[in-house]
Amino acid sequence: MPTAQDRPLRRDAQLNRDRIVSAAGEVFARRGLAGTFHNVADEAGVGLGTVYRRFPTKEQLVEAVYRQHLAGLVATAEAALRAPTGWDGLVDVLTTAARLHASDQGLRDVALARGHRPEAFREFGDRMEPLLRDLVERARTEGSLRPDVTAEDLPVVMAMISELALHADPVRPGLHTRYLALVLDGLRAPATTPLGDPLTRTELDAVAENWLPALEPREDAG
């Protein structure tokens, strides 16, 4: 049976919904997932209750804002597998992700959150992770990527660069690209300094949970 969320909206209700989604995109881009429904309501110029009528949970609002963005990241990774070399593909993915994460903290939070990513975006992880593994394996096999780098290292690298961009790009737009170039040089073969034991999947989930904000509990709409 269709739910209230599935039924077509009246024109005025659709305009309200679009305004809320647009406002949420602005709030999450600036504040990340730490942005609240109060922030969204203020940005949209509507009451808090109006936001909750359209989006009863924050997860639903985050999904409305970012589903297409995440699909674009998957498409970038798929295209990277068709690049002339594995290294070219890896650089394309890291450069594109760094640029997008630098301009949108919310996208960074959703894309890198892993273990506490909203349920609606688990599909993104299921599609993205095998693509990253294939990219890493291709680059290692051709000898361009140092052999001790794993796919689990890539989200950590992206979290480091996007965190830097958060603080550095307001000082000089695009400053994060300087340090992305340094990181890319560090990923290249041959390796000169051992990295130690690789990160496990469980450890990566724990790092993401400690680093990135989870969705917050429902706020009081009263």
From TrEMBL:
Keywords: DNA-binding, Transcription, Transcription regulation. InterPro entries: Homeodomain-like_sf, HTH-type_TetR-like_transc_reg, HTH_TetR, Tet_transcr_reg_TetR-rel_C_sf, TetR_SbtR-like_C. PROSITE patterns: HTH_TETR_2 (PS50977). It comes from the Bacteria. Transmembrane segments: none annotated. Residues 36-55 bind DNA. Residues 14-73 form the HTH tetR-type domain. One of its GO terms (molecular function) is transcription cis-regulatory region binding. The keyword DNA-binding applies. This is Transcriptional regulator, TetR family. It comes from Actinosynnema mirum (strain ATCC 29888 / DSM 43827 / JCM 3225 / NBRC 14064 / NCIMB 13271 / NRRL B-12336 / IMRU 3971 / 101).
